[in-house]
UniProtKB/TrEMBL annotation:
This is Eight transmembrane protein EpsH. The keyword Isomerase does not apply. Pfam families: Exosortase_EpsH. It comes from Frigoriglobus tundricola. One of its GO terms (molecular function) is peptidase activity. It comes from the Bacteria. One of its GO terms (biological process) is proteolysis. It is found in: Cell membrane. InterPro entries: Exo/Archaeosortase_dom, Exosortase. It is a multi-pass membrane protein. The keyword Transmembrane applies. Its main location: membrane.
Amino acid sequence: MLFHQLDAASLLLALAAIALAVGGLPLLKRAGPAIAFLIFMVPLPYELERNVGAPLKTAATVSSTYLLQTLGLPAIRDGNLILIDEIRLGVVDACSGLKMMVTFAAFSVGAVLLTQRSRFEKLLVLLGVVPVAVLTNVLRITATGVSFAATADKGAQDFLHNLHGWLMMPVGLALLALELWVLKRLVVDDREPMDPAALFAEPGAGYR
């Protein structure tokens, strides 16, 4: 596993070296953010997955159980299991939401790099990665619990379980769009915007 991580990380160093060799520091500064963005393709270390995934599973189980109870279902938490009458809904490693969090972090960083927002707004977007990813995972587990309680058909349960997993990213992106929309109306940016053509003439330019 460590070999795959080093292999992917070496590609980033190679791309940075190529940019430096071809265009010197100016090109490296321009290409740096795009190259650094590729860090999201590097697999997470196993120790990190284990140490971070465990508390994420616990948080998802506790929150989903509470939400199911709020919806009127007799949900009981037993470790990382959610018991709904005779239904045993297990929150396993794949359900921790860690991979979703990394993917959502990539989208959030992409939004920060591509949108013209104040540093404060960009910081809030990055700080919102964990809460939004956890919320999305909790909604998925809760929806799965409601679906399992509504039907006992195994085929329908499998289909709905997979469907809720597929919907995680669209829901996460919708929450990201909502976050950007709210921030746009809450945060007032009084800086004077530059001519868009100036972005190609001056690296990192966006405002005067």
